[in-house]
Write a structure and sequence with these properties.
It is a single chain. The chain is an all-alpha fold and about 180 residues long. The protein contains 5 helices and no strands. Helix 1 packs antiparallel against helix 2, helix 1 runs parallel beside helix 3 and helix 1 runs antiparallel to helix 4.
């Protein structure tokens, strides 16, 4: 099969829209369920990080809505979405845990998994937007990529702080 430049553009745009819809719908679902995660966290630092994360998710959604306008498209609903499926399982949080650390660490783990999905998606979208010569779109996607990178690093730091803090508490308890 031979592609002409016109068909290549349509083909690339179709791939671009598929991935943009996936990440957009996943982010919207995450935004709608973020408060539950924050309420499930027992560690104050994690609650603050989740609040910052939710603020960033909202900004990323706004940027993606700008992207839809720039490419003259509208978001399309999707039935299968990796982010939605991870969040739907409520991060495997079990409110009956006798150790809150287990729920908190699950939240940190799954937020980082989501950010890794986002990082990969944004990188792919940036490559496609460059091929399509969507310069303004590339900039918006780069801003989203940077925020997702920062959030991933934030949750690594929160996990480190949390685990270190828990070790200190456990050491103190074992001495008494």
């Amino acid at each position: 099969m031979t592609f002409t430049p016109d068909k290549d553009v349509n083909f690339l745009k179709r791939i671009f829209m598929h991935h943009l819809n996936r990440i957009y719908n996943g982010k919207c679902f995450l935004r709608d369920h973020a408060q539950h995660l924050e309420e499930s966290a027992s560690f104050k630092g994690l609650q603050l990080a989740l609040d910052e994360f939710t603020t960033d998710v909202k900004k990323q959604i706004q940027r993606m809505e700008e992207i839809y306008a720039l490419v003259k498209e509208k978001p399309a609903p999707e039935s299968c979405n990796p982010i939605r499926n991870i969040v739907k399982d409520e991060f495997c949080i079990d409110t009956n845990q006798d150790l809150p650390v287990l729920n908190d660490l699950d939240i940190m783990l799954y937020v980082q998994i989501l950010e890794h999905i986002n990082l990969t998606s944004y990188r792919m979208l940036i490559m496609l937007s460059k091929l399509l010569q969507y310069n303004d779109v590339t900039q918006l996607l780069t801003e989203n990529l940077d925020e997702s990178t920062d959030n991933d690093q934030l949750f690594v730091l929160i996990a480190k702080e949390y685990i270190t803090k828990d070790q200190e508490i456990l050491k103190k308890q074992s001495r008494t």
